Amino acid sequence: MTNKPLLSVRDARVGFTTVRGVVRAVDGVSFELAEGRTLGIVGESGSGKSVLVRSLIGLVSATTGVEVEGQVVFEGRDLRKLSPADFRRVLGSEIGIVFQDPMTSLNPVTKIGRQIGEGLRLNRGLDRAAADRRAVELLSEVGIPEPERRARQYPHELSGGMRQRVAIAIAIACAPKLLIADEPTTALDVTVQRQILDLLQREQRQRGMAMILITHDLGVAASRADDIMVMYAGRAVEAASTREIFRTPRMPYTEALLRSLPRLSDRTHTRLTAIPGRPPDLARRTGGCAFAPRCSYRTERCDAEQPMLTREGGHGFSCFHPLANGA
User: Fold this and answer.
1) pLDDT digit string (tens) for 244-289?
2) Which residues touch 311 (CB under 8 Å, ≥6 apart)?
3) What is the CA angle 246-250-251, rounded to 5?
4) Whole-prediction pTM value?
5) Residue 303 belongs to what H/E stretch?
6) Residue 213: beta bridge partners?
7) Where are the beta strands (DSSP E) in 166-261?
8) I need a labelling partner for 242 at 20 to 30 A (CA). Which of 33, 36, 207, 218 fits?
């Protein structure tokens, strides 16, 4: 393993032009990811998590009404400078992605086996028979019973958990070096959520992949991620190792997210702690801290200035009044 990061993102920005102005869904986010590590990107709905990651892999691109800026370096190659053909090859063979809803990411009129085998044929040069055999093997690897029969079925014939396992099989088919899981347990019941997360973690460790896990639940990231980046209003507001985030959060927003987690020690019917207020309107951003209207540590400076991400050792935070170490 080298000292160079597998993925390096610098000053990523995404803006959408609307009738109400430009919405800065991602506003100057930078991070690095090393080989074999898992980065959890955490935040409320609308914080910019999915837009950030989708922009990195070209699913949000610079078109009319969309601004995409920043540098994305994967294994020493700037993905934004690759030709469309080279970019597709990287996505097909070196970067895999599991989306939130497999019913929209899977093709409803193509059999499961063919969907898994398509990437193998395009990126690994397998013929149809070999790709079909490998598809069955992958279905077995991700824990789907009767893989030969399931390979001949269509997505609507499978349960939600099975469909998500199929999506994982497609993502890992070409042995990628980076796996992106975008809210992979959405709409699944708690038991199936655990199974899917366990499967992702097992596959990652067995294959030595790096992984980006996008979630709104810090509890999920706690046991699955090596490092956590907390996003709010399109910005990274805290970034550190998972242990540091839970032991000594510095950003009040991170503290609020932690307080909102349910605890096994709570009595039955204990009300969850909610974060007061609402996320900001990104089309009407002010010059101050975006979290200030919801923050109990708010001062006049917070309303007037936007705090930059400050680092103390390996712990980054964006706040004029960070929580004390050990708080």
Assistant:
1) 999 999 999 999 999 988 877 778 888 888 899 999 988 888 789 9
2) none
3) 105
4) 0.92
5) helix 300-304
6) 40, 181
7) 178-182, 210-215, 227-232, 235-241
8) 207
